Amino acid sequence: MLTTGCDAVDDLLLGGFPPGIVSELCGVAGSGKTQLALQLLLRAQLPTDQGGLDGRSCYMYTDSLSPLKRLNELAQNYKNDEVSLDKIFLEIATDPMQLLNALKTRLPTLLDRHKVRLVVIDAITAVFRGIAVDSAADAGDRSKIMFEMVNCMRILAAQYDVVFVVINQMTTNMTVGIVPALGLAWSTCVNQRFQLAKVKNPSFRSFKTIFSPYLPSEKSALFEITASKLQ
Ligand code: ADP
To answer: Which protein residues touch ligand 1 with a CB less than 6 Å away?
Structure first.
């Protein structure tokens, strides 16, 4: 289990994020998905008796903004040598084929040879943004790549028994309002989904279980978000 460092969230998760399955974090912009993911990248390095995975991590990011500045801010919160940005592999993939290739070739190497225990994709949605779906054939191609990606994620998560977190954004649906992007088909492929949301108090966010094979749905916990820590 990989703890988040936020007690209420860890309690809700019955300890933390489990290895071997794909967990999705969804939520609107500013709900804290990236901040939580970056904290996980650092916490994965902690010894297991401190809630970490005693390993390295891999952050696959899909917009061109480097996470280094934010990781540095968060790393200030740890004791000397407890965490190191050198133990985080950063991989950028800005289109679907780049991400698929990274999942099929680069990631297995990292998992095999570099003691990577956590993989984060931030955000799966971004690689599909701007890709025109002008016809049923285009939509079919997009779904095919999406399924291939999530299949890779599930196989790697299980084969290497690593924690796998994929971030998804929200989209507006004319009939049901704001919902996680990528549709029903995608949602049936991830093993569990959690939704982060802003709350009245601007320093806090909520973390809610939407579905999970072992957790009750619609349970939520509050956590506090700052530049240097989530708690
Ligand atoms: P999301 O990934 O859901 O869009 P973020 O994780 O980027 O959301 O969360 C944004 C929140 O994280 C901001 O509201 C802010 O409080 C906090 N934060 C802390 N440091 C930074 C930073 N360097 N850049 C952006 N947001 C930051």
So the answer is: 27, 29-35, 70, 73, 225, 227
The whole-angstrom separation of Cα 119 and Cα 138 is 29
Asked if 118 contacts 55 with a C-beta cutoff of 8 angstroms, the reply is yes
Distance between Cα 228 and ligand 1 center (Å): 10
pLDDT digits (tens, 9 = 90+) for 11-24: 999 999 999 999 99
- The residue count of the chain comes to 231
Does domain 7-224 match CATH 3.50.50.60?
Answer: no
CA of 171 to the centre of ligand 1 (A): 19
Residue nearest to atom 23 of ligand 1 (CA): 70
What is the model's pTM? 0.95
- Dist. CA 187–CA 176, nearest whole Å: 16
Could you tell me the distance, in angstroms and rounded to a whole number, from the CA of residue 130 to the centre of ligand 1?
23
- Reported ipTM: 0.94
DSSP state of 86: G
Domain residue limits, the chain:
7-224
Q: How far apart are CA 127 and CA 218, in angstroms?
A: 29
State the pLDDT confidence band at 213, using cuts at 50, 70 and 90.
Answer: very high
Omega into 29 within 30° of 0, i.e. cis?
A: no
Distance 14 CA to ligand 1 centre (A): 25
What separation in angstroms does the CA of 80 have from each of 76, 83, 84, 170, 230? 9, 7, 9, 38, 19
